[in-house]
């Protein structure tokens, strides 16, 4: 099996954080997710449930506080 790169590891950590925040809801995180979601909704890279650039499920990605938009569209 190929070694995990730092990018893979960061992505995995973000997904774990994002799914945790799906199941244990936090008001500040939900506000951040709503702001990000509005941007993703206008984005040509958005697929139905995922970001077409990184392949991450948006439900978790939007709630992963340290995650970044791969196209630099999010403010935070
Ligand atoms: S590129 Fe950025 S704005 Fe577009 S769907 Fe992915 S995360 Fe959202």
Distance between the termini: 34 Å
Helix content: 40-55%
Strand content: under 5%
Overall geometry comes to globular
Sheet/helix structural class: mainly alpha
Number of helical stretches of at least 4 residues: 3
Number of strands: 0
Describe this structure in words.
The protein contains 3 helices and no strands. It has helices at 6-23, 27-41, 58-61. It is mainly alpha-helical and 76 residues long. It has a domain at 33-69. The structure holds iron/sulfur cluster (SF4). Iron/sulfur cluster binds next to helix 2.
Brief descriptors of the model:
globular; about 0% strand; single chain; about 80 residues; mainly alpha; binds iron/sulfur cluster
List the helices and strands and how they pair.
Elements: H1 6-23, H2 27-41, H3 58-61
The structure holds iron/sulfur cluster.
Outline:
The chain contains 3 helices and no strands. It has 76 residues and is mainly α. It has a domain at 33-69.
């Amino acid at each position: 099996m190929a070694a995990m790169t730092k990018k893979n590891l960061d992505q995995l950590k973000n997904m774990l954080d994002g799914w945790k925040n799906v199941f244990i809801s936090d008001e500040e995180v939900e506000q951040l997710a709503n702001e990000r979601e509005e941007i993703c909704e206008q984005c040509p890279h958005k697929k139905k449930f995922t970001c077409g650039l990184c392949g991450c499920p948006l439900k978790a990605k939007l709630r992963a506080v340290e995650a970044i938009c791969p196209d630099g569209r999010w403010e935070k």
